[in-house]
Write a structure and sequence with these properties.
The structure holds two protein chains of two kinds. By secondary structure, chain A is mainly α. Helices cover 76% and strands 0% of the residues of chain A. Chain A has a domain at 274-485. Chain A contains 19 helices and no strands. Chain A is globular. The two termini of chain A are 19 Å apart. By secondary structure, chain B is mainly α. Chain B has helices at 10-35, 40-57, 59-63, 88-111, 118-137, 141-159, 187-216, 221-226, 229-236, 240-254, 263-266, 272-281, 284-303, 309-330, 336-360, 364-396, 412-426, 433-447, 453-479, 485-492, 502-520, 522-541, 565-587, 593-598, 601-611, 616-666, 671-690; strands at 4-5, 8-9, 68-75, 80-86, 171-178, 181-185. Chain B has a two-stranded antiparallel ribbon with strand order 1-2. Chain B has a two-stranded antiparallel sheet with strand order 3-4. The radius of gyration of chain B is 29 Å and the shape is globular. Classes of the chains: A mainly alpha, B mainly alpha. Chain A binds chain B through residues 162-163, 166-167, 170, 174, 207, 210-211, 213-215, 217-218, 221-222, 227-229, 231-232, 234-235, 273-275, 277-278, 281-282, 289, 292-296, 428, 431, and chain B through 656-657, 659-661, 663-664, 666-667, 669, 671, 673-675, 677-678, 680-682, 684-686, 688-691.
Chain lengths: 494, 691
């Protein structure tokens, strides 16, 4: 049994209570109220949750990355790692929305939905049971459908929400189908038991087990934005409110990776599948298509949407080589944490630009370095970190990922090609990051400085400190990643 | 030594302070400069003095032939230690460097007066001295290399100190070309040239260092001597001599030895105080010091049966060639500082020759002492000569000796001191240090009993004749004869020639007096040094010297007992011939040198060869500057602009935009088509898994 003080339960308690109370308060006060009031409550709830996760780590109440447990959730380092990444993004989104929500109604509902979605994401990472995972998945997805369509009168927001919902529903259905196959084959929904059941499966049942794994890849791949399950993504990111895009790109995407690592990777290990090739092909396709498509984009949200697709490809390299190199999963987790901060910060910067200047076209960003110096600098740091420019934090995680691909080269002859593809793609990505930087700093001459939203500036400063600080001194973060990474050895199998 | 301070023995503490103090001064210099530009000179001179006093406190250690070795952990992870090694060699060297630097710093306060960038000047001067002392006192090669690079960096910064490249700061004659190469250099070019040419040596040195480290697993001098298994292993693979020669490559670069000698002349673009420092105390002496550092080790290995004689042969021959090559060019150059620069290179060649033949003879200590004694005496008279030349430049406002002339009545002190120091350079018999040290070198070469002894001896004597000649020529051109048009013009404009200021003439006065003063007791000074080094070599390296019975039948008078009569005779003849010829042409002016040179084709050709620097500089430029530039342009035009720019850069860009268009085409915005792709993707994943 889980103790009542275990991290997932406490987070459900804090965020759930506040999430439910916020709309009730707003009804009780019979007024739309100031957006700041609700924002601060939501902010406080997230800070407390994050503080609790951190406290549990410091008190060493967290079990090592277990992957399996008898309960439906487990309070392990793996879940805690993802919880911190997601809570950071949720905090970014909340703070980044301060300004954005001034112009929109129903702030209480808005912040409440963010909190509820955050519970869902965190629980996905902690789940060790397929049904629990699915419930958490839906808890994460449904609020985000609403958030994406939050601008009710805006057709592009509606289109975004509709497409997102359509594909979300499809992927949910696919996941449920996968779960039902797994349950039918093994008679259990506990991930540990499912995996054990797979390992002793009658050979005639193998294709069904494969189908279930394939369905999981597709279902989670939708959230991760893997090619070819990615096409909804640019449309949705473009149409959604900018802070919500940060939540989608930086956090819900990570839930997909958490679920994939918990189920798919292990499932495939016991099924003795050569799944590395499948994931390798998807990884290369994802990063290449993401980067190439990003080059020609004129809308900055769309450009970063494609960049976010490309990053899913980098992270997937680690998963693909995981069984052959211990660096693989570490690199993936490292990149996930960095990407949460980099992409979160980048989209919040865009939210700040959109609310202040009401432009998204790249040509309109000329001279941004003079107009919004802090935002522009934070954005540039985030972009360079995304490109993996040393000495920023993004460099080390990419180094580890590509290093893992080279490391796996002794077992898989094609694994080094993943690293080569990754390096070439990083170079390619600098084309559009650099182009954006040029627009912001080297074009336009007459712009005057405008007042930047303080909340956005705060996030820029924090993300810059994170990216530069852990870039110069990556040791603590690497230690944390090592702590959180589950060990893929036969010993860890049930 | 029982005296302790802060847990250090006094001598050990001094050994650290000697090089840390100048660095500390350099570090605070920019801050002081911000507060008050005037204060910087006090900081510089003060710290130079403190460093010199620290060096002086170590002298008793050297006199007792004692040795201090102190180490601290440097990089724990790879077991690297930093340390100081104060043995007689490094203590004597440190004192020479420190005290001469101190005098040069005093001189600089006068010479650099009113320069706007004075803070930068002091910063680099202190950095220069600190780096040099680091080389001297380090106990391992790696630490030496840090100092080595520091010296290189400081020399680069100081040679191009006047980076605005004004016409008066150039060297060479404007518009003069040799083989199509301009023989006229701006300070920034000169600094870069020095940096790059010495860097060639540095690369060799680091290769040699790492090669030794590969086998020995240590950079430490004591450790290398302690266990010589590494040398046996290297010798077995034939790598021992190459490693030492590579190390010597570093010394060749720093000490401007043939064929890395050409940077030294252009180094004259720096302020004269810098030239004095480079030539007397720091930079070029570093190479000699390095050879003196590793020489006994190589010799001791040879005594233990691991022969590396080729190393000494190379050192001796490089030294001999340089000595003659640069001396010949010194005879004809019209610029006073360049004459002195040629002379330095040539004298350094002497030292190398001595250190080289030392290893080829049975009495290692003879050549070793001779080379090092010459280093000391050269440091004194060359610093003095340079500072005096700086005064002349300062007052006359021209670097050409043809713009001077007849100055002896106006600058009496400088005239006297220049004679004294100049006599040292010429090796005036019995009264100058230069005589004794040069004679010791002659004797060491002559007595080395090696197959190369006679040719090397001949070169040494020939060089001595030339040295005495060009020194007399320099003094004659500057101080004798009629005033040049340049000076007459200056006087008409109301700038009469006057003596240099006190802060300037005192330092070179002191050194000139010392050249004569120590010269008078030169023989006993040399014997003292010989004695010290004998103990040092015996204690530290186990090199014993045999005392041959005094030659009873010597024809020499009593006070010259122990000297080699042949060497002594050669010294006297060389001095007399050189100064005599110089007197005929430039002091007595009985023969016009220009007419003499033009009188027949042979002299004319020789003169031209010397003036054009044996064409070596032009050849270096053709091979290593012009040709690579030409190749680079070709690569740029025919490869970079075609294959890379058109092929790759444009190609990648076009391919990427084409790809982007294709992908954009699939992004229809229609949900049905998205769903179709999604379904196809699912099928694809399952199919791959089934494969």
């Amino acid at each position: 049994m889980l103790e009542i003080t275990s991290t997932p339960l406490v987070i459900i308690g804090i965020l759930g209570t506040v999430g439910i109370l916020l709309p009730i308060i707003s009804i009780a006060r019979k007024e739309q109220g100031s957006n700041t009031f609700y924002a601060i409550i939501a902010f406080a709830a997230l800070i407390v949750s994050m503080g609790y996760v951190g406290y549990q780590f410091l008190e060493e109440n967290v079990s090592p990355s277990a992957l399996f447990a008898e309960d439906v959730v487990v309070d392990d380092a793996f879940g805690g790692f993802f919880a911190i990444a997601m809570l950071i993004v949720a905090l970014f989104t909340t703070v980044g929305s301060f300004n954005y929500m001034r112009k929109h109604n129903s702030p209480a509902v808005y912040y409440s939905l963010i909190l509820l979605a955050t519970i869902g994401m965190v629980l996905v990472a902690y789940s060790t049971d397929l049904v629990m995972l699915f419930v958490a998945w839906e808890l994460m997805s449904i609020p985000t459908y609403i958030l994406v369509g939050f601008r009710k009168k805006n057709p592009s927001s509606n289109e975004a929400a509709l497409k997102y919902f359509l594909f979300g529903a499809l992927s949910s259905a696919i996941i449920v189908y996968g779960i039902s196959l797994a349950y039918g084959l093994t008679g259990s929904t506990n991930i540990g038991e499912v995996i054990q059941g797979y390992s002793t499966l009658d050979p005639s049942m193998l294709p069904l087990a494969l189908l279930s794994v394939g369905l999981f890849i597709a279902g989670f791949g939708f959230k991760m934005g893997l090619v070819p399950f990615h096409q909804w993504l640019p449309d949705t990111y473009e149409g959604a409110p900018a802070p919500i895009t940060a939540l989608l790109a930086a956090a819900t995407k990570k839930a997909g990776f958490a679920a994939t690592i918990r189920i798919v990777i292990l499932g495939m290990v016991v099924l003795h599948l050569d799944w590395t090739l499948a994931l390798g092909i998807i990884a290369v396709m994802t990063m290449t298509i993401g980067n190439i498509a990003a080059i020609m984009q004129k809308n900055i949200s769309r450009m970063l949407a494609y960049s976010s697709i490309a990053h899913a490809g980098y992270i997937l390299i680690g998963l693909a080589v995981a069984p052959h190199s211990s660096l693989g999963l570490q690199g993936s987790l490292y990149q996930i944490m960095n990407h949460a901060v980099m992409k979160g910060a980048a989209f919040i910067a865009i939210a700040g630009i959109v609310t202040t200047l009401a432009v998204t076209h790249i040509d309109k960003l000329k001279g941004l370095g003079r107009r919004m110096p802090v935002t522009a600098l934070g954005l540039v740091i985030a972009l360079f970190a995304l490109a993996g420019v040393p000495p920023l934090s993004g460099f080390w995680s990419k180094l580890m990922l590509f290093g893992s691909a080279l490391d796996a080269g002794t077992a898989l002859w094609w694994a080094p090609w993943l690293a080569i593809a990754g390096v070439l793609n990083s170079a390619l990505s600098l084309a559009y990051y650099g182009w954006l930087t040029r627009k912001m700093y080297f074009e336009g001459e007459t712009e005057k400085r405008v007042i930047e939203p303080k909340s956005v500036m705060a996030i820029m400063i924090i993300s810059t400190i994170f990216l530069v600080g852990f870039g110069v001194y990556p040791e603590p973060l690497i230690k944390f990643v090592e702590l959180a990474t589950p060990v893929l050895s036969l010993g860890s199998m049930p | 030594m029982a005296t302790e301070l802060m847990g250090f023995e006094i001598g050990t503490l001094s050994a650290w302070l000697v090089w840390i103090l100048p660095f500390a001064a350099a570090m605070i210099m920019p801050g002081i400069g911000k507060l008050s530009q005037n204060a910087t000179k006090f900081i510089a001179v003060g710290f130079a003095l403190m460093s010199a006093i620290s060096a002086a406190t170590m002298i008793p250690v050297a006199l007792e032939a004692h040795e201090l070795h102190h180490q601290i952990m440097w990089i724990e992870a790879i077991g690297l230690k930093a340390g100081v090694l104060a043995d007689p060699l490094s203590i004597i060297m440190a004192n020479v460097v420190a005290w001469i630097s101190f005098l040069i710093m005093i001189y600089s306060t006068g010479y650099m007066k009113g320069d706007k960038d004075i803070t930068r000047f002091w910063f680099w001067m202190m950095f220069f001295i600190g780096s040099m002392q680091l080389i001297v006192l380090s106990d391992n090669l790696l630490q030496v290399f840090f100092g080595w690079e520091g010296v290189g960096l400081a020399s680069y910064a100081l040679i191009s100190f006047w980076y605005r490249d004004k016409k008066k700061d150039h060297v060479g004659t404007e518009g003069r070309t040799v083989l199509g190469m301009l023989d006229y250099y701006a300070p920034t070019h000169a600094g870069m040239k020095a940096f790059i040419m010495t860097k060639v040596g540095d690369v060799m040195m680091i290769a040699g260092m790492l090669l030794i480290f590969l086998f020995a697993g240590t950079f430490g001098f004591k450790e290398l001597m302690g266990n010589t298994d590494w040398a046996t292993a290297m010798a077995a693979q034939g790598l021992l001599v190459p490693a030492f020669v590579l190390l010597f490559g570093g010394a060749m670069g720093k000490s401007a030895q043939f064929p890395l000698n050409e940077w030294l002349l252009e180094a004259m673009t720096g302020p004269t105080a810098v030239s004095a420092l480079i030539h007397a105390a720091t930079m070029v002496k570093a190479g000699v010091f390095l050879v003196a550092r590793i020489g006994p080790l190589v010799f001791a290995l040879g005594a233990a049966g691991i022969l590396a004689d080729q190393f000494f042969e190379i050192v001796a021959w490089v030294g001999a060639i340089t000595a003659l090559l640069l001396a010949t060019q010194g005879m004809v150059n019209p610029e006073i500082k360049k004459v002195l620069a040629y002379s330095t290179g040539s004298q350094i060649g002497y030292m190398m020759m001595a250190l080289g033949v030392a290893g080829l003879s049975h009495q290692y200590v003879d050549g070793y002492t001779a080379g090092f004694f010459h280093l000391i005496s050269h440091a004194m008279f060359k610093a003095s000569l340079f500072m005096a030349a700086g005064s002349l430049l300062h007052i006359v406002g021209s670097r050409f000796m043809t713009d001077m002339g007849g100055l002896r009545k106006h600058m009496k002190k400088t005239y006297a001191f220049m004679w004294a120091a100049g006599l040292g350079l010429m090796g005036a018999p019995f009264i100058t240090t230069g005589f004794w040290s040069k004679d010791a070198i002659f004797a060491a070469v002559y007595e080395s009993g090696n197959e190369w002894a006679l040719p090397l001896f001949a070169i040494a004597v020939l060089t001595a004749i030339i040295t005495a000649f060009y020194t007399t020529r320099m003094i004659g051109l500057v101080f004798f004869g009629k005033k040049s048009k340049h000076i007459e013009k200056m006087e008409e404009e109301g700038h009469p020639i006057h003596e240099a200021s006190v802060s300037m003439w005192v330092p070179y006065g002191i050194l000139a007096v010392l050249t004569i003063g120590i010269g008078i007791i030169g023989l006993s000074a040399e014997e003292g040094l010989h004695h010290t080094f004998e103990y040092y070599l015996k204690n530290s390296f186990g090199i014993y010297s045999s005392h041959a019975a005094a030659d009873e039948s010597s024809i020499l008078p009593e006070f010259l007992q122990g000297l080699n009569p042949v060497a002594l005779g050669a010294s006297l003849v060389a001095f007399a011939t050189g100064i005599g010829l110089g007197y005929i042409f430039y002091i007595g002016r009985w023969v016009d040198p220009v007419k003499f040179v033009n009188s027949n084709i042979f002299f004319y050709a020789i003169h031209k060869l010397f003036l054009n620097r044996w064409y070596l500089n032009a050849i270096v430029y053709w091979c290593f500057v012009t040709t690579p530039l030409w190749l680079a342009r070709g690569v740029s035009r025919y490869f970079e602009k075609t294959a890379i720019d058109y092929g790759m850069n444009d190609g990648v860009q076009k391919a990427a935009s084409w790809g982007a268009k294709v992908i954009q085409g699939t992004q229809t915005g229609v949900s049905q088509s998205y769903l179709f792709v999604f379904g196809a993707g699912l099928l694809f994943v399952v199919l791959i898994l089934l494969m």
